[in-house]
């Protein structure tokens, strides 16, 4: 499967509109019949390729959809992906919210099953829940290698958008390596997540926590959010959705299943508590260090309380969100240059990043 098919364009033949050409056309010469035959063959090949692609879609959906579930958490509804045959299910942290118990229904139907929270990791918007009595024949999804995801690759999003279980939408990978900040929730800033997969497959409320699948039947991401258009009252921007890459899903879920929590995030940290500050023009102008963790990355580099960070490596820092996005692109142990203001004087420090 996952065939790469070159598009086939119908042959185009330029024919001068001369009397001779017109007479030849009327004479019943073999050129017209050859062109017609060529066109017919090309159409037949296109139909065959289209039927094969459709068969790929149907096969993948039949294979993967049983591994996608609907999760009810209080008044909220989302999706999840079966992680193993012991009843562990991976989903988004914002799907589970503050709930500790859940009702789970397979995308293919059946009775509701009770589940409980194992652990939630809001920093990466991932969580794992577990069925209390896993049914026999539970089918874990196959997590793919998200580093091999390519722009233009066909993908299917599976989940329960708007409560419509077993829904499948289709699109392509529009971009990779996106850093996305989720909207604020409950007065707290949303997670800033790096290396996300952008897709044109429709992502709607209820799709969160489901599966973004390639034509090899591998889950390459967990659909998490859709872009919004501030110019349209923050309504959803059609065709722009984001999924957490399968590599991060595997890293987080594996630790939660084994240890009950995330012990190694793989995410870089500056080890500060900060807040956005405004300049003289009342526009965001940097991040003030409210607290620098003792022996943390910033403190070890001489950055302390009251300093205002204005640049991180090659990125300008104007808000706490822009700083989080810059950090999301780094790894623990990376060395970066941080520019900050202290008492009106600009300084620069080399910081070895810690781990969140």
Automatic annotation (TrEMBL):
InterPro entries: Chloro_Bact_Ser_Proteases (IPR051201), PDZ (IPR001478), PDZ_sf (IPR036034), Peptidase_S1_PA (IPR009003), Peptidase_S1C (IPR001940). The keyword Signal applies. Residues 1-34 form the signal peptide. Keywords: Hydrolase, Protease, Signal. Pfam families: PDZ_2, Trypsin_2. The keyword Ubl conjugation does not apply. Residues 274-344 form the PDZ domain. This is Trypsin-like peptidase domain-containing protein. The lineage of its organism: Bacteria, Bacillati, Actinomycetota, Actinomycetes, Kitasatosporales.
